[in-house]
Each structure stands twice: as structure tokens, then as C-alpha cells.
Amino acid sequence: MAISFHPSESVFERGGPIYILAVPILLFYSLSLVGCISVSPGIPGIFLIQLQDNTGNGTRIQIGYFGVCSASNSSASALETLCKSTFGTSTAELSTGLSIPQDFLQYGLDVRDTAFPSFLPVGAVCFLLGTLAFILLKMTLRTLDDITDDENKEEKMESRADRLSSATSGLLWASVGIALTVAYASTVTLSGLAFVTGTRFSTATHVVRGTTLEALQWAIVGLSALFALGVRHMIRSNDSSDDDDQHQNPATKALSGSSTAQGVSRPRPTLQSGARSAPPPPKAPILGLPAKR
């Protein structure tokens, strides 16, 4: 089992588009997880839910997986939006730093923790490990191709390649399953979140779903599935080609051996320098004359 490519093949024939897919997948994972942790351009707009208090000064909070942003309706620019990471920070510190009521902030964080468990980072870790396993698989197979006279080392490398191949497929498909679960659960939960918010704040709180984060999560699902299918197809196609080579090589060797045997058993006849040639037959008599003796 070896994934090898001819040097003359182009990058697209070697699976270039499949490798390129890993870049946007990792980018979308990163954007989904860093939403609302800073005021960098575009980051505050990546959130799970937005809660707006209609009873006070119109304060609204945007909540992501690991961050929260607050802003007032009087804010005229993104620079006035405050964002902080919720990782390792108490609600009291967040309330003071964001200048929003603590009970309102705590309610938003409770909704996030209850309705949106942080499973997306697990999918990101599985995808990253699967990609690393695929890289190690290619390195192992290149090393295996260079082994010519060490059978023990070749067997060890083949066993390692089999384990890496199974790990690659398992981790990549696990990331697809987790991403699909998170995206579907988020969409369904956001659709019914209006009923959840009515249990405490009723119509005093306006709920807005984070469509940007939803789109990123579904994009991760689609691209991850394409990446996993492409990698699996490359591995299976190469396995099939190796099996064909193993079945064809014995026949080729037998054919070449037969040709060699035939060539040896039937050498081209040659004249020996020391042998005497047979005398020519006597000429027939002409016009009745006796032949010379």
C-alpha cells in the first residue's frame, strides 16, 4: 500500500484541490471559535445569539463560544463595542468590564452553556489530528518506497502505514460527524430560542440569531465531508493499483523467464572453423559424355 505520484503529474492530478480544502476548513474553524473575543474587524459579528434589553438603555450583548461583546444603541462605530473572552473570567469581572448588568449577562451565558455545548472545538481537534495523520502517512509511504533490501524494516513501515491510514479516515470522518451534529443542533436551537427567552424576560428581550456563525458551521460540514471523501478516494485508489501490480508482476516475470528459456534452448546455429565441409555432388554428364572421376 503506497501512495506515490509520478513527478511529471500536475498538482491537480496529485490531489491538489483536496489539499487546498484544508486551508478554508481550518480558517472557518478558527473564525467560529474566536467570535466575540476581540473588537477586530468582523470578529464581533460572529456570534451565536444576540440579546437586546428593550427595557433600559437598549444594551445588547453578543455571545460566542468563548467571548462576549456589548454595545449600546447609541454606538456609532465598531470602536465603541467592548468584547472580552469568557474563558477563565468571572461574570462579575465581565459585567464590570463590559458595563452591562450582571443578571442580564449571566442569563445570556446560561443560555449559551445550556443550549450550545462547546463540541465544535472537539471537531476541530479531530480534523487537525486527521490531517497530521495523513501527512505522516505520506511521509511513511515515501520512506517505504525507498526500502529495497530490508524486509524487516519494510514490514514495520507497512504496518505503520496501515495504522496511519485507519487513523486518518477515522479522525476525518469523526470531525465531519461532530461538525454536522453541532451545525444541525445550533440551527434547531436558534429557531426555537424565542420560546426559551420568554421564560424570564418575555418580550422585554429581543433575540437575534447569529447567521454568520451558522453559515460558517455549515460550510465546515460541507468542506470537511469533501476533504474526507477525497482523502479516502486517494487511499483506496492507490490500494487498488497496488493490488493490480501484485497480480500482474508474477505473470510478467513468468513470461520473461519463458522467453529467456526459449532463447537459451534454441541458440542460433553457427559454423565451426575446424570442421570440413562436405564435397559438392558430382556434375551430371553433358551431351552423353561420361562424368569425371
From TrEMBL:
The chain crosses the membrane at residues 18-40, 115-137, 170-195, 215-231. The keyword Ligase does not apply. One of its GO terms (cellular component) is membrane. Keywords: Membrane, Transmembrane, Transmembrane helix. Pfam families: Fig1 (PF12351). Residues 248-263 have a biased composition (Polar residues). The keyword Transmembrane helix applies. Residues 238-293 are annotated as: Disordered. This is Uncharacterized protein. It comes from Mollisia scopiformis (Conifer needle endophyte fungus). The lineage of its organism: Eukaryota, Fungi, Dikarya, Ascomycota, Pezizomycotina.
